[in-house]
Amino acid sequence: MSKGNTQRKIQMVDLKGQYFKIKKDIDKAIADVIGTSAFINGPAVGRFSSALAQYTGSSNVITCGNGTDALQIALMALGLKPGDEVIVPAFTYVASAEVIALLGLKPVLTDVNRTTFNTDIRFVEKALTPRTRAIIPVHLFGQSCDMAPLMEFASAHGLYVVEDNAQSLGAVYTFPDGSRRHAGTVGHIGCTSFFPSKNLGCYGDGGALFTDDPVLAERIRMIANHGQKVKYHHETVGCNSRLDTIQAAVLEVKLRHLDEYCTARREAASRYRELLKDVEGIELPAESPFSTHVYHQFTLKVDEDCRDALKEHLASCGIPSMIYYPLPLHFQKAYHQEGASFPNAEHLASSVLSLPMHTELTPRMQTRIAGAVKEFFAERDNGRQ
Ligand SMILES: *Cc1c(COP(=O)(O)O)cnc(C)c1O
């Protein structure tokens, strides 16, 4: 009998498996929305916003259509002028920089920390000019950037900080004085995404903004709603960006499980660490001392000359893996910067490989994945002798 028949297929994310565990609650929540037919701005939207505010400790949570909209609305709320510069890492998902360019602002790319993959004050400092108005730190793969030095720097230079927390909802940052805050609630505005594969994902598109500033909160609400506070009275140019009631109802159920989802991801990460600790040719993801890690991704750094071959080997064993991100932004056609060189971002783009990471990953699956990784390096080392 072939061994393959009895093995569950390994996926990068397993949304179906996660759904079946909470199916009853989800189905009821969705049916309730359909039953009342309050599809836009129904009661679940307000309930979910309050629950998320409570969970994160943010004074205001404003939901919107998706994480990219959240970033765009955040920048719109700051009242920046065309040509104003916004500092953003070169190693990130495109949305972080896209919204800057879209608003006629200037994305100023910076290198990132080679160990944590994250925004690093040392490179942000170098990017400062008299036109700098804001910084977008990106909390990549599940842990917070080092926010204290960034906030200090921003305050010294009168800059806004908009956190891109699409990947690290649930992570907690510890300040040097020991006080703790959720990632996404430290800057002037924080943004997140509820894209299905994110740590708190809905069943379609969704996003949210966080702010403790009541004036910014009011502006954000107004901008997300066509620039109006009173219906048909438009004070500013806005957009139309809303979280559907059905998505809010799904998120309301799933938020109750977020801590247990974070724990499941962390446990999967420590199993990977144990299984892969002696493998030469890879570097395991680093955990920052100042942030908890909620493992949106478990991202290896692989020797540059064999990363793609490892990915192919895993695929041939039926194991998916992903390269987040294959090109830094300064190498993208749309964001090309003449003469720009960010060695860490470039190195990461050619060495990262993310292994399957989700809440339904079993020890047995991980043993298979790690086995395939080890097999690859054993074969490589034999070939070298
Ligand atoms: C997913 C993601 C976004 C965008 O979120 P959407 O909901 O897909 O628009 C922005 N930034 C980062 C870092 C992301 O991972």
Give a quick set of tags describing it.
single chain; 385 residues; alpha/beta; Aspartate Aminotransferase, domain 2; Aspartate Aminotransferase, domain 1; 7-stranded mixed beta sheet; 3-stranded antiparallel beta sheet; disordered N terminus; binds pyridoxal-5'-phosphate
Brief overview, please?
With 385 residues, this protein is α/β, with parallel strands linked by helices. The chain is built from 13 helices and 14 strands. The two termini are 35 Å apart.
Structure description:
With 385 residues, the chain is α/β, with parallel strands linked by helices. The protein contains 13 helices and 14 strands. The strands form 4 sheets. It has a 7-stranded mixed beta sheet with strand order 1-9-8-5-4-2-3, with helices on both faces. The protein has a 3-stranded antiparallel beta sheet with strand order 12-13-14. Strand 6 and strand 7 (180-182) form a beta hairpin. Helix 4 crosses helix 5 and helix 4 (67-77) packs across helix 8 (214-224). The protein is globular, with a radius of gyration of 21 Å. The protein binds pyridoxal-5'-phosphate. Residues 66-68, 92-93, 95-96, 138, 164, 166-167, 193, 195, 205, 207 line the site of pyridoxal-5'-phosphate (PLP).
Radius of gyration, in angstroms, nearest whole number: 21 Å
DSSP E strands, number? 14
CA-to-CA gap between the ends? 35 Å
> Spatial order of the strands in the main sheet?
1-9-8-5-4-2-3
Overall body shape:
globular
Average pLDDT confidence is: 96
- For this structure, the CATH topology of the largest domain is Aspartate Aminotransferase, domain 2
Strand-residue fraction? 5-15%
The H-level CATH homologous superfamily of the largest domain, spelled out, is Type I PLP-dependent aspartate aminotransferase-like (Major domain)
Gross CATH architecture of the largest domain = 3-Layer(aba) Sandwich
Number of helices: 13
